[in-house]
Amino acid sequence: xxxxxxxVQTTTAASARQWRDLARKVEDLGYSxxxxxxxxxxxxxxxxxTFLRPQHLAPLAAIAAAAAWTTTLRVGCRVFCVDxxxxxxxxxxxxxxxxxxxxxxxxxxxxxTNAGEYEAIxxxxxxxxxxxxxxxxxxxxxxAHSAGGPIALDGAHVRVGGYxxxxxxxxRPHPPIMIGGSxxxxxxxxxxxxxxxxMATLPWVxxxxxxxxxxxxxxxxxxMVRDAAGxxxxxxxxxxxxxxxxxxxxAGDALERWAARLRTAVPGVRAETLRxxxxxxxxxxxxxxxxxxxxxxxxxxxxxxxxxxxIDAFAPVVERLTGT
Length: 324
Fold this sequence. Notes:
By secondary structure, this protein is of the alpha/beta class. 43% of the residues lie in helices and 19% in strands. The protein is built from twelve helices and twelve strands. The protein has helices at 16-28, 45-50, 59-68, 87-100, 115-120, 128-147, 184-193, 214-229, 251-262, 271-275, 285-299, 311-321; strands at 5-10, 33-36, 74-81, 105-110, 150-154, 159-164, 177-181, 196-199, 237-240, 244-247, 280-283, 301-307. The strands form three sheets. An eight-stranded parallel beta barrel has the order 1-2-3-4-7-8-9-12, surrounded by eight helices. Strands 5-6 form a two-stranded antiparallel ribbon. α1 (16-28) links the parallel β1 and β2. α3 runs parallel beside α4, α4 packs across α6 (128-147) and α11 (285-299) packs across α12 (311-321). The termini are close together. The relative contact order is 0.14.
């Protein structure tokens, strides 16, 4: 089993001082990594309609600054939507941040999911197969750029060649690549090509249309990753994020509140379902520590990303489990 490590994901920093102070605090509390998301729209009807929280900071500049203000903290984006970036530019930006940070970049990449944001920023939201095919080609370009030799890619979506990639990143053969998802094609791609496989949030229903509980669906996804990875499965790091996170001695009350909140979007959610849901952590520090150990044993997840507003309460768990 891989040792535990922990990350923080945020979208809320709105000034240089807030971002600098957050980066240093995350580092001081012992978290491994600070992630931003890859979003560009501010407040307005698109944000209201899609429930997409406005994000002040663009990720590339922000994660470079966070790396400059810290010494050991890893930085990254969870995840870059490949359609939002010129592929060759993204590959060079990633290599540059890895170089300037002394090898502290983790590069998450994804195929994009928010049709409303695509439309708002002037992009066409194509069908999933085309978006995933583009993701596959961008990953190949990132790896080719990092290799430093001549680049020659002539794909359906990425046509790049006639030069060698500069700069060379510090991390070899390339900065760790994170790919996440829930469906077979993307999880299989992650199993074959990523260093970190991010397991997407599971459904909130007690039993899905296929008759599986959330825990059973999580096990099914793990089998898909294992089968596609083959011999490289042992080298993969599995990452996940608790959507519901409450460090509390009144876990029952917390789960009732969360169930009521989730029912506004998913009718029928019950606190009982949340109690054993793989994307829920609610209870004392000791309870959460034991639950994470159990899930690492059954689901392989050792890399946990927590939201910005829980970093202080969750810090004792980080202290207990990091590196174990």
